[in-house]
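Q: Please design a sequence for this.
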């Protein structure tokens, strides 16, 4: 399985975001993760589409290959801001089903912009809606902490949910990423992968360390990737 490491810029130095993005890309990261919070759906306020647009040119490898920008919307309503992030250069846009009045319509609106769409499930949220839209999405994001703040500890019950989603993805036969966000570190990333995840969001575990490359390489070693 191809594993992807997606550093969350929520834990980066906001005073030098462009440099931080370039540094984690140089360290070998696969995606750049944007945690978008509105101080309404979650109790914090972070980035808007203009920040995404400004950072897009920095999300490239030394050979000029673009690194996907993975936008996680913790906002309500969903559709207008999703469209703005699509215009700003997002490659993936994921949202919480309870934040949209019409989940299927929101998915279709994202995909109509040529962007891949995903659904996000909070720790205590059931997966029922997934059965009705799994053929239409490109990514499922499982929150292994409660959304709104970085630096939280991994919630162990998320492993069961990851296993459940992996079974559903396998049964669907679709090419869908299974991403996990919250409390991921070198010492637990293998267990999370064994549960079925293939994409790993890490914030303070990477940006909180002096050597980003060493952390990314340690995660890859733990994954055997």
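A: Design:
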């Amino acid at each position: 399985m191809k594993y992807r490491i997606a550093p969350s810029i929520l834990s980066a130095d906001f005073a030098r975001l462009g440099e931080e993005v370039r540094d984690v890309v140089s360290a070998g990261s696969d995606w750049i993760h944007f945690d978008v919070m509105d101080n309404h759906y979650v109790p914090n306020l972070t980035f808007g589409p203009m920040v995404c647009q400004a950072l897009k040119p920095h999300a490239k490898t030394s050979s000029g290959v673009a690194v996907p920008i993975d936008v996680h919307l913790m906002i309500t309503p969903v559709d207008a801001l999703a469209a703005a992030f699509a215009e700003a250069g997002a490659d993936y846009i994921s949202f919480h089903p309870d934040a949209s009045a019409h989940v299927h319509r929101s998915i279709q609106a994202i995909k109509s912009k040529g962007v891949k769409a995903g659904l996000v499930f909070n720790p205590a949220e059931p997966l029922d809606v997934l059965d009705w839209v799994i053929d239409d999405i490109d990514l499922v994001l499982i929150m292994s902490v409660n959304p709104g703040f970085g630096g939280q500890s991994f919630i162990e019950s998320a492993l069961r949910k990851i296993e459940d989603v992996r079974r559903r993805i396998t049964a669907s036969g679709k090419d869908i990423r299974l991403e996990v966000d919250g409390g991921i570190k070198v010492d637990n990333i293998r267990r999370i992968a064994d549960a079925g995840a293939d994409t790993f969001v890490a914030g303070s575990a990477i940006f909180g360390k002096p050597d980003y490359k060493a952390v990314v390489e340690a995660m890859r070693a733990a994954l055997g990737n």
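Q: Thanks. Anything notable?
A: The two ends are 9 Å apart (CA to CA). Residues 4-223 form a domain with the TIM Barrel fold (CATH 3.20.20.70).
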